[in-house]
Sequence to fold (496 residues):
Amino acid sequence: MTVLAHHTDTLTRDALAVLQPGFEGTTAPAWVLRLVGEGLASVGLFGRNIVSAGQLAALTAQLRAERDDVLVAIDEEGGDVTRLEVREGSSFPGNLALGAVDDTALTREVARELGRRLAECGVNLNWAPSADVNSNPDNPVIGVRSFGADTALAARHTAAYVEGLQAAGVAACTKHFPGHGDTNVDSHHALPRIDVDLDTLQIRELVPFKAAIEAGSKAVMSAHILVPALDPTRPATLSPQILTGLLRKELGYEGLIVTDGMEMNAIAGTYGIERGSVLAIAAGADAICVGGGLADEGTVLALRDALVAAVREGTLPEERLADAAARVRALAEWTRRARPDARPEGGRASGIGLTAARRALLVSGTAAPVSAPYVATLAPVANIAVGDETPWGVAAELAALVPGTESGVYPEGSGAAGVLADAGGRTVVAVVRDAHRHPWMTEVLDALVAARPDTVVVEMGLPRAEPRGGLYVATHGASRVCGQAAAEVIAAGTGG
Fold:
């Protein structure tokens, strides 16, 4: 039974209960432990908090010593967005790769194994999966995080992912409601806008979320996007029409509604995080995600005090805050009861991630096995969701298979001449990520293939551009296992 270490009034406890803050460090700071004792029901973990599975398990045990049902949340999508393996790259492919295979049993198994690893470390709420239909190929923030551009495919894999994750005792948080796929702006930087009609929303954006709800998703995350067909003035996170009217009443969703990070500029730069948090709870959100950027005690106390003041001033109904807090506690209780045996069958770690990555490869062209190749990674600036801490590519994986492999990284502004000079007489392996969104990358690739028709091209983002080169490999994502699967094909060669 949970015992609060410090007595605080009900209103203050409820205000703390709806916050999901982050913090710095690989152990819980004293202020976090104190606030958990005072009613804080959730914390969010990021890559900066994790160095190993053992350390993460010790951290979550430290938190549970204060409160045994605390929700420990993480942004672990697998694929390009990983926190568990932020310094190595994920052992699982992301959504686009799973969608490319289109085997819902595989998706369910991948999600269950990912969930098992989270549960083993004491994490019980995952801000995943992304249910966004990637209908805009120029989307700068979703892309390979989506199962694909086909609505029905996205829906069936979203449901399978939710089922797999929750079978491991980890609550799924399906995102980004009502759908972030048709945007060309990253909400970390500005407020995106989706100008489609209600019919399009119903038959495209909302379908995967309906599937997630039917699959029993314990949480849904709102998007910081403006959808004028639903609410012409407020972004989804702050919109009563979208959160209460659409998600709760029309779609019948009864679980936890979590906001996307409130310090993202779409909210912080327009409403501010304090006013934004009050408006979000009033609109129907139950939990405020903050801490990706603002990870200090002052932020948490400011949000707590803003919510308490809003109730006392009459701008936030006390019963709405109480209802939100009750939903948080109900989810915490579900995770406490749902803890399964976290040991893998046979006591061995599953290789399902690499199996899935191999199945997701799209290979065309012919090539002999390479010897001592030169891997040129054409590197775009990573979006904030992915981050720049996580390594990607095929250089390390190919070097492990082919002795003498050398490599270099080429940012925007680089040219093919520099790559060819560095490569010398070696076969060039050009690695790109979303080449269709980066004209400079396309220009370098075209020049490399013109100069060296045997160039191997590896696309680790959305494979929109035409295949080119002597051998072309699309991995549908840039996780470590995707790089390993591609390296195996390059090292072995192919007859087409």
Q: What stands out?
A: The chain has 17 helices and 14 strands. The radius of gyration is 23 Å.
